Amino acid sequence: MATVNAPNTSIDQTVRIFDQFYQYEAAIPVEEYDIVHSYFASQFTSEISAANFTVTFFRIVNQTGINAMTLLEQFQGKSGMDLTLTMAYYLNTNSSPTTMLGLNAHATPNWYVARNIVP
């Protein structure tokens, strides 16, 4: 006899994330998505901010290979600027050194390299 709380295994139990700007798409287990999204929704007043941080969070998970719940532990207990700085840290680990986020001082390229770059 089926109960109300029994999951229907014939239905796909994943959430699909689409980011048209970065052309990013991922299939994420619904439980992980709900936990992460509810955490970010509790931290931000805007639903758009929470959704953007959730998508970015799962991009970091896919790029680094870190388990989503393990990475979420790094974000929990932080709010405001600390949360943003933690996100920038993980984004900077996978990006080019010339496109660092959250830094006040711009990276100055080597003079010999800079002169070879055509604007």
Q: Would you mind describing this structure in some detail?
A:
The protein has helices at 30-43, 47-64, 68-75, 81-93, 111-114; strands spanning 14-19, 24-29. The longest helix has 18 residues, at 47-64. It has one domain. The model has no long low-confidence stretch (mean pLDDT 77). It is 48% helix and 10% strand. Helix 1 crosses helix 2 (47-64). By secondary structure, it is mainly alpha-helical. Strand 1 (14-19) and strand 2 form a beta hairpin. The chain has a two-stranded antiparallel sheet with strand order 1-2.
Could you provide a short overview of the structure?
The chain has 119 residues and is mainly alpha-helical.
How would a crystallographer describe the biggest sheet? Answer: 2 strands, antiparallel
Report mean pLDDT, rounded to a whole number.
77
For the secondary structure, the number of strands is 2
SS summary, helix count: 5
How much of the sequence lies in strands comes to 5-15%
Q: Give the structural class.
A: mainly alpha
Instruction: Give the distance, in angstroms, between the N- and C-terminal Cα atoms.
Output: 69 Å
Give the proportion of residues in helices.
Answer: 40-55%
- Order of secondary-structure elements: EEHHHHH
Question: How many separate structural domains?
Answer: 1
Rg, Å, rounded = 19 Å
Shape: globular
Given as residue ranges, the uncertain stretches (5+ residues, pLDDT < 50) are none
Q: Order of strands side by side in the largest beta sheet? A: 1-2
